[in-house]
Specification:
Elements (H helix, E strand, L loop, with lengths): L9 E3 L1 H7 L4 E4 L9 H14 L4 E5 L3 H13 L2 E6 L5 H9 L3 E4 L4 H11 L5 E3 L6 H7 L1 H12 L6 E5 L4 H12 L7 E6 L4 H8 L22 H6 L5 E6 L1 H15 L5 H11 L11 E5 L7 H5 L1
Parallel strand pairs: 2-10, 3-4, 3-6, 4-5, 7-8, 7-10, 8-9
Antiparallel strand pairs: 1-2
Length: 306
């Protein structure tokens, strides 16, 4: 089965490398056909579902997961319905609809959207595609590690820490699965959230899964009120270092990244980049960090400026 995702470039951020006296590597997941890493895991899940007879994909998502599902649905030639909350910008809805998916606006918050999606998926031939919480999704995201290790070693470099943004925890779970598949059980992961969307940190502090009362961060694609149980479980069996950054730090990093690399990414992606741009203490002691540039379709120049 040929993957729906592509192998993405691994680039060195030479400006940050010089400023930090490190070799700062970037895994450019923003270059995926879906504009974000999401196609790795969601693409695999959709492929397997269709191979098993599914003819209709239903995904509740206000952005990147929905877009990835729509990309997968088109590639697989099956009907695709994406449900979004009322808060999803019109531009994002149009981008998803332009791919050929049906877009349904339902509910003021994602929780309501999700309930409706599960209702629609309760039909023969229909499969529910979650944004981040499924073993197929984690397995697909783990391929990012396969590529990054091969690419970095071809450059004669050994990654000594991975930095990624965390929303629902699907990317984090996939990366850690990939590291363990390669025997890198002691390689730390810096898990970055924005203040106001820190469901992983809340779970770590409480010692159990916690549901946030609300999401107040501008990084809406990190806005999972409850992190996946798989992601929280990883914090108990791997060296996961939780870091919080402000919305201002995330946006500033996204703007600086646009200036340095001529690439637009969402503030959710800027959160991970902020660890390097602000030279946070958690990066001290590492010489070859890998930052996952997770991308995102919900951004434009006007939005960053505002």
């Amino acid at each position: 089965m040929t993957p729906l995702h592509i192998a993405t470039p691994l680039l060195e951020h030479r400006t940050l490398s010089a400023a930090l006296n490190k070799r700062v590597l970037l895994k450019m997941e923003n270059t995926q056909p879906s504009g974000s890493f999401k196609l790795r895991g969601i693409g695999l899940m959709c492929q397997r579902a269709v191979a098993q007879g599914a003819s209709h994909l239903v995904c509740p998502s206000g952005g990147n997961a929905g877009f990835a599902t729509a990309v997968a649905g088109v590639a697989l030639g099956v009907r695709t319905t994406i449900l979004v909350p009322q808060t999803t910008p019109l531009t994002v809805r149009r981008q998803i609809a332009d791919l050929g998916a049906t877009v349904i606006v339902h509910g003021e918050v994602w929780d309501s959207t999700n309930l409706e999606a599960r209702r629609l998926a309760d039909q023969a031939g229909t499969i529910y595609i979650p944004p981040f919480d499924h073993p197929d999704i984690w397995e697909g995201h783990a391929t990012l590690v396969d590529e990054a290790l091969r690419q970095s070693r071809a450059l004669g470099l050994e990654i000594d820490v991975v930095v990624c943004s965390v929303g629902g925890g699907g990317l984090m779970s996939g990366i850690l699965q990939g590291l363990h598949q390669h025997g890198l059980t002691r390689l730390p992961l810096i898990a970055v959230e924005t203040e106001g969307a820190a469901s992983l940190r809340a779970a770590i502090d409480a010692g159990e899964l916690v549901t946030l009362p609300a999401i107040t961060s501008i990084a809406s694609t990190l806005g999972a009120k409850r992190v996946a149980a798989e992601a929280f479980g990883w914090t108990q069996r791997h060296d996961v270092r939780s870091v919080l950054v402000s919305d201002a730090q995330a946006i500033d990093a996204a703007r600086r990244f646009a200036n340095d690399q001529r690439v637009l990414v969402e503030p959710a992606c800027g959160a991970a980049l902020a660890v390097a741009y602000d030279n946070l203490p958690q990066l001290a002691g590492f010489q070859c960090p890998l930052i996952v540039v997770c991308g995102g379709i919900g951004v434009d120049l006007k939005m960053l400026a505002q």
